Amino acid sequence: MHFNPYGGAAAELAAALVNADPGSGADELAALLRDHGYKPVGTLDADQARELTDWAARLSPVFDGAADQVALVNDLLVEAAAKPYISTHDDRPPHLHFAPEHAPTAHRVRAFTAADLAHAVCEDPGRLGRCARPGCRTVYVDTSRNGRRRYCTTRCANRVHVADHRRGRTA
């Protein structure tokens, strides 16, 4: 499933931010951005790291599939003040940006993730989810062909299935 020309990279970055340790510092968050292909990262200071951590907390409820998911994303779009334009920086082909390239990294990440989550919600809101394993709070973007993902990883799915199997054998 393709959310937009980014291929859903911003929605996956949003999930990674939500799943990141809330105590992550600037260096860890900059590494997370780079690991998810966000370029250019620029510099992150402690204030911007705090902004991104606060933003991740705002993104989290979008993955719960609540009835107010559209309203939540609309609020994020307003807060991010995304203003799309086409960019060709770094010899890349034309692609959309949602905030000026010279804006602080945290501002650009907010606009980038809000815009892609909006696209994901419009395309198929069921593709954004939270792991169904009890006790796991990990969020994910379902890019599977059939769109029926319920767990963040195969490991979580296996844990649930093994527990179900063991309960069935003892009953």
How are the SSEs placed, and which strands pair?
Blueprint: H1 9-19, H2 26-35, H3 46-59, H4 69-80, E1 85-87, E2 95-97, H5 105-123, E3 128-130, E4 139-141, H6 154-170
Antiparallel strand pairs: 1-2, 3-4
Helix pairs in contact: 1-3, 1-5, 3-5, 4-5
Domain Zinc finger CGNR: 127-167
Organism: Saccharothrix hoggarensis
Protein name: CGNR zinc finger domain-containing protein
Q: What report would you give on this structure?
A:
With 171 residues, the chain is mainly alpha-helical. It has one domain: Jann2411-like domain (Jann2411-like fold, Orthogonal Bundle). Helices cover 49% and strands 7% of the residues. It is built from six helices and four strands; from the N terminus they run ααααββαββα. It has helices at 9-19, 26-35, 46-59, 69-80, 105-123, 154-170; strands spanning 85-87, 95-97, 128-130, 139-141. The protein has a two-stranded antiparallel sheet. Strands 3-4 form a two-stranded antiparallel sheet.
Task: Describe, in short, the structure shown.
This protein has 171 residues and is mainly alpha-helical.
**Rg of Cα set:** 17 Å
Strand order in space, largest sheet = 1-2
Write down the domain tally: 1
Helix content: 40-55%
Secondary structure: number of strands: 4
List its traits.
mainly alpha; 171 residues; 6 helices; globular; 7% strand; two-stranded antiparallel ribbon; two-stranded antiparallel sheet; 4 strands; Jann2411-like fold
